[in-house]
Write a structure and sequence with these properties.
This protein is of the alpha/beta class. 33% of the residues lie in helices and 26% in strands. The longest helix has 13 residues. It has 2 domains: 66 residues, no CATH class; 188 residues, Vaccinia Virus protein VP39 (Rossmann fold). The strands form 3 sheets. The protein has a 7-stranded mixed sheet, with helices on both faces. A 4-stranded mixed sheet has the order 6-9-7-8. The protein has a two-stranded antiparallel ribbon with strand order 1-2. The mean pLDDT is 91. Strand 4, helix 6 and strand 5 form a beta-alpha-beta unit.
């Protein structure tokens, strides 16, 4: 857990301080509880607008009562999982697969405002926040696909989690928490875009096992892929080998609970 002063350091003006203060409070005491202070803050701040140089001056909208929104800010503000300064080239196209509420979209558009971005997200609640990010920041050259990605096109069952992250495609039709979503064949979509210098983020809750081997041979020479692998360190070497066999250099950025591996794969 990071101290309050670290949160306040990200505020780039006086009016941002209260938002980062509430964010820090919500990180330690989720605002979906019944306590007096919790209920007061939830009523006063149904949404937080966080303006910080971390997002190159753009404004991030989150719901402080949704712990997944609060938790994932750690990846951007403190853990530096998506450090765009590591890219050895300037992309001509950005793709955000499993966009959640649009934090990577915001980060990448903050740095590369004139580069087109293609955003994929199947969760309806998350999509509403992506639209908020786009509207609030007046982002241009954005294409939002309200779909999952895989190695085929069609429809599939999507199982949403209680939080807004962790939703995934599923073959089990018995659960009442599943909805049918559109699925886009990512390989064919990338071929249609025909990027020459591609930046892509893949955080698709396990579907990377199908997607990465499917797209790997059709990627442009200059490609950078931030991806989260959901099957543990022991199996990570398999996906790492696929990248290396195709000329990529893979760097692990973070490992969570010995299961979730965040990595950056670059071919230049």
């Amino acid at each position: 857990m990071y101290p309050l002063k670290n949160y306040l350091a990200f505020a780039n003006n006086f009016w941002s301080y209260h938002s980062f203060f509430v964010l820090r409070y919500a990180r330690t005491r989720p605002l979906n509880g019944k306590g007096l202070i919790t209920r007061f803050l939830r009523k006063m701040f149904p949404l937080l607008i966080l303006k910080s140089n971390k997002f190159y001056g753009l404004k991030l909208v989150i719901n402080p009562a949704n712990f997944s929104h609060v938790r994932i800010t750690d990846e951007f503000f403190f853990e530096n999982v998506y450090n765009l300064e590591l890219l050895p080239f300037r992309p001509d196209c950005i793709v955000d697969c499993g966009a959640h509420i649009g934090m990577f979209t915001l980060l990448s558009k903050g740095k590369y405002s004139d580069i087109p971005i293609y955003i994929f997200e199947p969760n309806a609640e998350n999509i509403s926040y992506i639209k908020k990010q786009i509207s609030l920041n007046n982002l241009s050259l954005t294409t939002l696909e309200e779909s999952a990605v895989s190695n085929y096109s069609g429809t599939a069952l999507f199982e949403a989690s209680e939080l807004s992250f962790g939703g995934h495609l599923s073959n089990d039709a018995n659960s009442h928490t599943k909805t049918e979503v559109n699925v886009i064949n990512l390989k064919k979509y990338l071929q249609k875009i025909n990027a020459q210098k591609l930046l892509i983020k893949i955080d698709i809750e396990g579907e990377e096992e199908n997607v990465i081997p499917h797209i790997i041979t059709s990627l442009p020479q200059q490609t950078a892929i931030y991806f989260e692998y959901h099957y543990g360190l022991e199996k990570f070497n398999k996906i790492k080998s696929i990248f290396e066999e195709n000329g990529f250099v893979v760097k692990v950025n973070r490992v969570v609970d010995h299961k979730y591996v965040d990595a950056l794969s670059i071919r230049n």
